[in-house]
Amino acid sequence: MLHAFTMNRRVSTLRVLLLSLCWLLPQISPAAERPNILWVTSEDNGPQLGCYGDTYATTPNLDKLASRGMRYLRAWSSAPVCAPARTTIISGVYPPATGSEHMRSEVRLPDFMKMFPQFLREAGYYCSNNSKEDYDLIKPPGVWDESSTRAHYRNRQPGQPFFAVFNFTISHESQIRNAIDATNRIHDPAQARVPAYHPDLPEVRRDWAQYYDRLTMMDAQVGRVLRELEADGLAEDTIVFYYGDHGSGMPRSKRWPGNSGLHVPLIVHFPAKWWHLAPEEYRVNGTSERLVSFIDLAPTVLSLAGIKPPSWLHGGAFAGRFPAKAREFNFGFRARMDERLDLARSATDGRFVYIRNYMPHKPWGQHLDYMFQTTTTRVWKEQFDAGQLNDAQSHFWKPKPPEELYDLEADPDEVNNLAASPEHQRIMRRLRKAQQELAREIRDIGFLPENEIHARDSGVPPFTMGHDRDLYPMKEIMDAAELASGLDPRAGSKLKRLLKHRDSAVRYWAALGFVMRGETAVADAREELTALLNDPAPAPRIAAAEALGRFGNDTDAAAALAVLMQLASMDTNGLHVSILALNAIDAMGDRAKPVATEVAALPVVQPGLPGKLNGYVPRLIEAIAGK
Hints:
Blueprint lengths: L12 H12 L11 E7 L17 H9 L1 E7 L5 H10 L3 H4 L17 H7 L3 E5 L15 E2 L14 E7 L4 H4 L25 H30 L6 E7 L14 H4 L3 E4 L17 E7 L3 H8 L25 E5 L9 E5 L3 E6 L17 H11 L5 H4 L8 E5 L17 H18 L7 H6 L6 H5 L7 H12 L6 H7 L5 H14 L1 H6 L1 H7 L5 H14 L2 H14 L2 H4 L1 H13 L8 H5 L15 H10 L2
Parallel strand pairs: 1-5, 1-6, 2-8, 3-4, 3-5
Antiparallel strand pairs: 2-7, 6-7, 9-10, 10-11, 11-12
Helix pairs in contact: 15-17, 16-17, 17-20, 19-20, 20-21, 20-23, 21-23, 23-25
C-alpha cells in the first residue's frame, strides 16, 4: 500500500496545517493494555534454517519458535545490504524516495516524518535497541529510550509496555571468513549445497559450511533471549518477531537485488492472549504465502500497538488493529555499494523475479574491497579469469543485461534469465510496469547522480526536493535513464540530442548511454562528448570523460584524464564527485596508468565525514594506483 506525497501549492493555510497534524499525530487506540513486542534479528542470512526446510541447517531454537508461530515464506528485505535495509525499516519509507539508498548516505528526513519508535514512545512504550543502528538517515532526537550494548526491556518502568530489539552479528559476512576452531565446527563442507552460480571448489564449500556454522551459533543466541523472556514471566504478554536483515553474506547473495539477496526468514509468534491481533491465517496455518516486505514492518508494529500508521508510510500492516490489503509485489533496490557505483531495481510477485539494470555496463562482481575479503569471492574471480567457469557461474563477472527475469519454481538459484523468452513477455511487462509505477509513485531520486541529490536540495531534505517538480523533473530524467540503459542500438541520435538537454542529470544519462554502447557509438558522438567535457555540472562531465577515456583515441583519453583528475580530489569537489571521478578513472584500466602516481597523492580523508564514509576514496585510490 503506497501513498503518494502530493500537495497543491494553492491550498489554504488552514488545510495545510490540518494535513500536517494528520501526518504528525497518528491515531492511537484507547485500549487499556497493549502487547510487548520483541524483535530478534540477525545479520546477513537468508532462510537457510531447519524450519524453512533446509536439512543441512542446525537451528533448534528458531525451529521451535516457528513451530509455535508462523513462518512467512515470501518475505523480502528491500535492499541486499545492511544499512539501506535497516533504513527502510526504521523510517517506513523506501530509501530511493529519501535519498538514503546509498551506503552511509547520512541524509535528513523531512520534519513531518519520524522514525517509528518515536510514535511508540509517544504512546507510552519503552523502546530499547541492542544495539546496531547503521542507518543511512540522520537519526532525530528521541528515537530510543536506550540504544547500546546494555539496552534491555528490563530497564523500563514497572508495568510499562516495551518494544525491544536484540540484533545478532555472529552470522555477518565478516564472520564467514573468520577462523573457527576445528572443535567448534558443526557442518561438514562435503555435505554443503553449492548453488549453481558458484563453482564447486573446496574453498567455496568451506565458506558455505562456516556460514551454516554461524547460523547455528546465532540460533543459540536467539534461544538465550527467548529463555530470558520466559524467565522474566513475559512470554505470554509478548509478540515475538525474528528476521534476518537480507540474504546470506556469501557473494551473489549480499548486494544482489534478486531473491538470493532479498529473501529473508520472518517468523512471528503471538501468545494466545494476543491472537486477536494476529492475521487470520495465523490461527489456521503455520505458514503464510502473503508477500511481506521490510517496508511493512513499521506500520505493522504501530498497528500491533494500537497506533494507526500515518498515511505517509509506504507500506501496510500485516497484523494488528489496522491491517492493510495484501501487497501484489515486493520491491528491491541496489545503489552505491561502499566505493562502487550501480543502480538496479527489482520486483517479485512471489514466483517471478524481475531485475532492471540501469547500469548494465557494470558487472555485479565489481571489485568491492570488503566483498573480496571473502575467500569464495577471490577464488571465484580467479576461476573466471582462467576461463574455468560455465555460463551460470560466469554471469556475475560479466556486464549485465538491461533486464533479468527468473522463475523461482523452475530455477531457485536464478541462473536462467528468461527476459528474452517469448513465452514470458506478459510476465515481464507486468513486473516491469510494477517497478516503473513504484518509482514514479515514490518519486525515486536514485536516478540522480549522488552528488546532485545534495546539490539540488536548496536547503531542504532530499525527499522534499524529490517532490518538487521544478527541482526534480523526474519524468525527463527517468526517461533518459531508460533510454540509455535499454541498449537499443537505434537510440544513438536521441542520446546525442539529450547531451544538450537543459537538465544536468539528463545529460549525465545520455553520456552514460554512450559508455554503455562502447567504441562505435562513442566515435559517432565524439564531437558532442568532447563538448560535454566543459559542462558546468560535474556528473555529465565525468560520464563524457569516461566514454572518451575508455573508447576514444589517445588524444581523447588524455583529455578525459585531465578532466577526471580535476574532479578526483575530495578537498575541492567533495566526496560524491570524487567517488564518481575515481570510478571513471578506474574503469579506464591501463589507459589510466599515466595518472597513477597523481592519484596516489590525492587526499584520503575529508574532515567532518563519518568514519566509514572516509574509507571509500582510499580504496579507490589503492585500486587505481596499484595497476
